[in-house]
Specification:
Order of helices and strands: HHHHHHHHHHHHHHHHHHHH
Oligomer: single chain
Number of strands: 0
Structural class: mainly alpha
Largest sheet: none
Strand content: under 5%
Helix content: over 70%
Distance between the termini: 45 Å
Shape: globular
Radius of gyration: 22 Å
Number of helices: 20
């Protein structure tokens, strides 16, 4: 996942220069991340081969969210995007909650990426504690942000290509293996032909796996923001449709090949499912090349997220939704908002401490919590669209179906004991944000509104 963090209130009047197919390609590159490369392994472990159907449902739900956001953007282009629309639909408490929820989800997403990178690095250094690797990646990422390396932004697209190429490489090699074109004679379980083999953990496991399928599409709301840059704003839904078709084909084909090449019990959160699927072929180059490609691309995404979270807090501070301290920048550090970066660094430090205390299940916990907070924002997008947009009956039913899918993905974490703690983490974040919003609504914002009315 890659993040473009917009201003909270600025009007987007500038003329865009993106063609619809360019937005589709950017969307594919930005959305593919460690959530798919490693998170999908937990999904397979949770539900088995039926993870493919989880991804199909997540694709539909993701498109509903993107389509509604794109339509709101086309009708009323605003850089604040989903936070602005939440404010327009329900008031300042909604935009405040939306902004801080997004900041919190990004902090957890960074923590999730940090854990994913550390787990993948243990492929080579299995005896190094997870928290030490996490600390190393954190320090490196902060250094990149502090130096303000402009060339880093220029290679983001290249690294997005690396991520996509890694999946395509697996699809090609796995296809050769499935069709018997590989030299080694290996038995594959093949496509499940019974309900038990397709849903080995039953409906409960399938229900719980939805959250990981959604997580692989995380960041799609940011591409909705970029719809403002289109030459023709009305092309935004088409760009989203093509983008999701490409993502669905890549994701589902890769997962389908993986689950037909090995039994679901072989997959675990300690290794990418695509490395596990080809393990029996003893391809000396593949695990190393694939792992390196994911780590390089994943680190770029995490660092871009750190940039984004830092910028987002500055925006919240300028809009009065965060203490003014966080809008201050240090000119000696290339106008870098150090207070904002410091708070984001504390978030990374919390992930490192969690890895030290809970090394076994920390990735599942953080990933689950990040996914749920992200889905809270997706829910805001849908309910904002229901109030702002003029929809047909079919359009409203489709939006409500999108809400139902989000509720299903979130509630699914309740039935799986190993990830339930992640739900409690997300609810804690949401509760704190809601309480603060309620207090501000009754005190500061109420006084501000009265003062404006009197003036």
């Amino acid at each position: 996942m890659d993040f473009f963090i917009p201003s909270g209130t600025s009007k987007g009047n500038e003329k865009g220069n993106l063609k619809w197919w360019q937005l589709s390609l950017v969307g594919v590159g930005c959305t593919i991340g460690t959530g798919f490369f490693l998170g999908s392994a937990i999904g397979i472990e949770t539900t088995g081969p039926s993870i493919v159907f989880s991804f199909l449902l997540a694709t539909i739900g993701t498109y509903i969210v993107y389509d509604l956001l794109a339509k709101m953007t086309a009708a009323d282009p605003q850089e604040g995007s989903f936070c602005y629309y939440a404010n327009k639909a329900y008031g300042r408490w909604a935009s405040f909650s939306c902004g801080w929820n997004y900041w919190s989800s990004n902090i957890l997403i960074m923590g999730s990426q940090l854990m994913a990178l550390s787990i993948l690095t243990r492929f080579w250094f299995e005896h190094i504690p997870l928290w030490i690797l996490a600390a190393g990646y954190s320090i490196l990422s902060i250094i990149v942000v502090l130096t303000g390396t402009s060339s880093f932004d220029k290679i983001e697209n290249l690294l997005a290509i690396i991520k996509t190429a890694a999946i395509i490489m697996f699809i090609i090699i796995a296809s050769f293996a499935i069709f018997g074109w590989m030299p080694k004679d290996v038995h594959h379980p093949g496509i499940p032909t019974t309900t038990h083999r397709l849903f080995p953990e039953g409906i409960r496991g399938f229900w719980a796996s939805l959250i990981y399928a959604y997580y692989a599409f995380g960041g799609i709301e940011v591409i909705g923001l970029m719809a403002m840059r289109l030459k023709k704003k009305e092309d935004a839904p088409k760009a989203g449709m093509i983008m999701l078709i490409v993502l669905a084909i890549i994701y589902i084909l890769a997962l389908l090949l993986a689950v037909t090449m090995d039994y679901y019990g072989a997959f675990s959160e300690k290794e990418s499912p695509f490395v596990t699927a080809l393990e029996k072929y003893h391809l000396s180059f593949f695990p190393h090349v694939f792992n390196a490609a994911i780590i390089i691309a994943g680190f770029s995404t995490m660092t871009a997220s750190l940039f984004g979270v830092t910028t987002l807090l500055v925006t919240l501070a300028k809009d009065g939704d965060a203490p003014a301290l966080f809008s201050k920048k240090v000119k000696k550090w290339k106008s870098l908002p150090l207070p904002s970066l410091l708070l984001a660094t504390i978030g990374l430090l919390a992930s490192i401490i969690a890895a030290l205390v809970l090394p076994g299940k920390i990735y599942e916990y953080i990933t689950t919590a990040a996914s749920i907070l992200l889905l809270f924002n997706w829910g805001f997008i849908i309910i904002s669209a229901l109030r702002i947009l003029t929809m047909s009956l079919l359009g409203r039913l489709l939006a409500l179906f999108g809400v139902a899918l989000i509720v299903a993905a979130i509630s699914g974490t309740l039935v799986e004991r190993t990830i339930r703690f992640g739900l409690f983490i997300s609810l804690l974040f949401a509760a704190i944000i809601s309480i603060v919003a309620f207090i501000l609504q009754k005190t500061v914002w109420k006084k501000t509104k009265k003062n404006k009315a009197c003036s």
